[in-house]
TrEMBL record:
Keywords: Aminotransferase, Transferase. InterPro entries: Aminotrans_IV, Aminotransferase-like, BCAT-like_C. This is Aminotransferase class IV. The keyword Membrane does not apply. It holds the Pfam family Aminotran_4. GO terms for molecular function: transaminase activity.
Length: 266
């Protein structure tokens, strides 16, 4: 029986288990949660985002074709890890020793889910170099979040010209009464699969959805969610040195159930 953690590379049309070589740049990355039951949410959307990002970054048909085959092999490999709650990550990286591109799979055990969060604003403008692609800025954001966690925060709110745009490892959604709100679509950020799923649920349930260009102070009294593939919906209980927020545990719990209902077998 396969056990996590484990790492694999795409080599000569096959997925090979081996240690990963050092890289100079993480060009693309994508992650999703696999429950112990073997189910996952919105896997097709993760596939679409990964392959689109590879296309934007590498551009050549050969790399895109390899990434497509790699994706299928990676999903097949994950099925060999039964009864384990996983948070795998697939990557396109540039290797340190020869500057070559490499497709890689990290099979990781998932940490415990977090249903509530404490956030803090990033000091300065959005630190991302490539805000629409998950990967190039991931390691820097992880380091920034680690520093914030040492000071009592779980997540960092990223601002662009003072406007709320994203979290360091999550998308941000908030509620004004019964209206679900997302940052304005013209603010550059990674296309969150989880936020997209929540907005689709909102449409299906007749919930009004709008977009705003909002500063932190504009969220005073709102209910704020940090959402991602790992934790699903995490209700923000406190914004350090930021606006006072409302917390409605029953609404968050209801929407977590709706989100879980989207899960399908791997």
């Amino acid at each position: 029986m396969a056990t996590a953690p484990a790492t694999f590379v795409w080599s000569r049309g096959a997925l090979v288990e081996q240690e990963l070589q050092p890289h100079t740049e993480l060009l693309v990355a994508d992650s999703w949660l696999v429950e112990a039951s073997g189910t996952v949410r919105a896997l097709d959307a993760h596939r679409e985002r990964f392959l689109d990002s590879v296309g934007r970054t590498a551009g050549d048909a050969g790399t895109i074709a390899a990434a497509t085959s790699f994706w299928g092999a990676a999903i097949g490999r994950l099925k060999a890890f039964p009864q384990a709650r996983l948070f795998p990550r697939i990557e396109l990286a540039r290797l340190q020793h020869d500057d070559a591109l490499e497709l890689r799979l990290r099979v990781r055990l998932a940490p415990r889910p977090r249903t509530s969060s404490v956030v803090v604003s990033h000091a300065g403008d959005d630190p991302r170099r490539v805000p629409r692609v998950k990967g190039p800025d991931l390691e820097h954001l992880v380091a920034l979040r680690g520093e914030a966690q040492e000071n009592g925060a779980d997540e960092i709110v990223l601002l662009h010209d003072g406007l709320v745009v994203d979290g360091s490892s999550s998308a941000l959604l908030w509620w004004r009464g019964e209206t679900l709100v997302a940052p304005s679509g013209d603010l550059a950020r990674v296309a969150s699969v989880t936020a997209r799923s929540i907005r689709l649920i909102a449409t299906a349930t007749g919930t009004r959805v709008v977009e705003e260009r909002a500063r932190p102070a504009d969220l005073e009294g709102c209910e704020l969610w940090a959402v991602n593939a790992l934790h699903g919906i995490s209700a923000v209980e406190q914004w350090i040195d930021g606006p006072a927020l409302a917390v409605r545990p029953t609404r968050a719990a209801t929407w977590r159930k709706r989100l879980a209902a989207l899960s399908r077998p791997l």
